Amino acid sequence: GGGYLAAFAAIGIAGTVGLFFLTPVRSFPLQFDFSEASVLFKFSLPLMLANILGMFLFRIDIFMIGYYL
Fold this sequence. Notes:
The chain contains two helices and no strands. By secondary structure, it is mainly alpha-helical. The protein has one domain (2-68).
């Protein structure tokens, strides 16, 4: 359904954008340690994959709706 895929894509986009805004605030003030970087990477990678997958499915869904209309 379009609503489910749109919500999935929106969650992925919001999570990825939120991580891009939060990461510099948390990481770059001088005390940067690699353990925190690996934790951020482990959290951001699934969100970015969900974002890509969500946008891919969302675009397919829009295409199919347009095709059937």
